[in-house]
Amino acid sequence: MARSKTSSPRSTPTAGRAGSIRLISGQWRGRKLPVHDVEGLRPTTDRVKETLFNWLATDVRDSRCLDVFAGSGSLGFEALSRYASYVMMIEQEPKAARQLQANLQTLQCTQAQVVCRDSLQVLQAGCNEPFELVFLDPPFRKELLTAVIPLLEQQGWLADRALIYLERENEGTAPLIPANWQLLKDKQAGQVCYQLYLRESPTS
User: Fold this and answer.
1) How many CB atoms are located within 10 Å of the residue 128 CB?
2) Most buried pick, 10, 171, 181, 185, via CB within 10 A?
3) CA-to-CA distance for 68 and 78, rounded, in angstroms?
4) Residue 204 to residues 92, 149, 185: CA-CA distances in angstroms?
5) How far apart are CA 163 and CA 93, in angstroms?
6) pLDDT in tens, the chain (204 residues)
7) Please, how many CA atoms are within 13 Å of residue 74, restricted to the half-sphere of its CB?
8) Closest by Cα among 172, 162, 197 to 183
9) DSSP 129
10) What is the rounded radius of gyration, in angstroms, for the C-alpha atoms of the chain?
11) Pair type for strands 86-90 and 20-22
């Protein structure tokens, strides 16, 4: 998140056992990866992650993926396990970023990059090669989606027909969604609501 998912007051990991994430399917199915003990780290739960990747069943393989607030890497590693061609993980918390890099080395995966910087600064710099799949799961109660979504559109991060996943707290203010983003899926699980959008070209 401009971040890590480290700004949420909830500090207990909720995916896999404490201190780890579990990959659900693909080449590393069932594999558990350690998560650094960073206060407030909030991995996407296995229940939500399974629903999301069911939605994306035919869209992950060979896609370029951007995990804007990588945190534990739960979503980015799942995409890699399901044969995404490349994943960029942005994580500003140094310890969490080092753990992401260590987990890539453990998996002997070279199709990913960890960027240890503030997400907003990275997005403001722009992108020359857009992404087909984007994960937006920022720290709760920071209203970061309001700042991130326009940057994705304005700075060239999104391919035509890109899929964008949003995860946020129910009680938060819903971000303004661009007119060219079509809502495909919308669900809730406990305190979390999550949506999948399809981006159309602004000129179409």
Assistant:
1) 5
2) 181
3) 15
4) 35, 19, 22
5) 26
6) 434 444 333 333 333 334 899 999 999 999 999 997 765 566 778 899 999 999 999 999 999 999 999 999 999 999 999 999 999 999 999 999 999 999 999 999 999 999 999 999 999 999 999 999 999 999 887 889 999 999 999 999 999 999 999 999 888 788 999 999 999 999 998 889 999 999 998 764
7) 31
8) 197
9) S
10) 15
11) unpaired
Assign 83 to helix, strand or coil.
Answer: coil
The token pair at 183 is: 């809502």
* pTM of structure: 0.87
Helices (H), 37-143: 46-55, 74-81, 94-106, 119-124
Q: Which helix (H) or strand (E) holds 154?
A: helix 144-154
Residue 139 DSSP label:
P
176 touches 149 (CB < 8 A): yes
Identity of residue 75: L
Is residue 125 within 8 Å of 152, Cβ to Cβ? no
As given in the structure block, the two tokens for residue 7 are 């700004």
With residues binned 3-state (H G I as helix, E B as strand, rest as coil), the percentages for the chain, rounded to 5, are: 25, 25, 50
CA–CA separation, 204 and 133 (whole Å): 20
Distance of CA 109 to the CA centre of its chain: 18
Residue with tokens 């939605």: 55
Domains contained in the chain, CATH given: 20-199 (3.40.50.150)
